[in-house]
Specification:
Elements: H1 2-7, H2 19-37, H3 41-61, H4 63-70, H5 80-86, H6 95-101, H7 112-134, H8 139-142, H9 147-173
Length: about 170
């Protein structure tokens, strides 16, 4: 069923332990692969935006169904909110940052571009996961919104905080 596939990010929400961490992995992995492949910043951003839109829309559209299916407002199996929000800290990095992550030859695979891309994506992933667990203001308040809105909004606020951190870091270090 497509609803359950999207809500659980194709079953990742059923993995234990830490289903939210599993649900955050696809955007980070896709971003990392795109950086190493050298896709244009436009393709990179549009791809992450599409992921965020699809999984965010699923969270909102299927919120009531999810509550009935799993018997809780924000069940651990529902990780589409993490998939959506993880995209935020991975987006809108400076163009120079993209160039520093691009592999230009097979010999560079274990070189500086590889480690630059890996460190940046890992920082975005960890920043989001830590902030999603801590839930800085207004995360806890946003959870009170009805249905899928509350499930998604608290993660988006954590994603926004992580994005700000990554924006400052990439622009300072670029």
């Amino acid at each position: 069923m497509i609803r359950e596939a999207l809500i659980t990010t194709f079953g990742l929400g059923k993995l234990r332990p830490a289903p939210g961490t599993w649900g955050s992995l696809p955007p980070a992995a896709i971003a990392w692969l795109m950086l190493l492949d050298g896709v244009s910043p436009a393709v990179y951003h549009w791809t992450l935006a599409a992921i965020a839109i699809v999984f965010g829309a699923a969270c909102i559209a299927f919120g009531i169904w999810t509550q009935r299916r799993f018997g809780k407002k924000d069940p651990s199996q529902c990780v589409c909110d993490e998939t959506c929000a993880q995209c935020l800290p991975l987006m809108f990095w400076p163009s120079a940052w993209f160039e520093s992550c691009r592999l230009t030859s097979a010999e560079q695979f274990w070189g500086e571009p590889f480690w630059h891309a890996t460190a940046t994506v890992a920082a975005a992933f960890l920043a989001f996961r830590i902030l999603d667990i801590i839930k800085p203001w207004p995360g806890r308040r946003l959870e009170r919104l009805p249905y899928g809105w509350g499930v998604l909004a608290d993660d988006l606020s954590s994603g926004l905080y992580a994005a700000i951190i990554l924006q400052v870091a990439t622009r300072t270090l670029a």
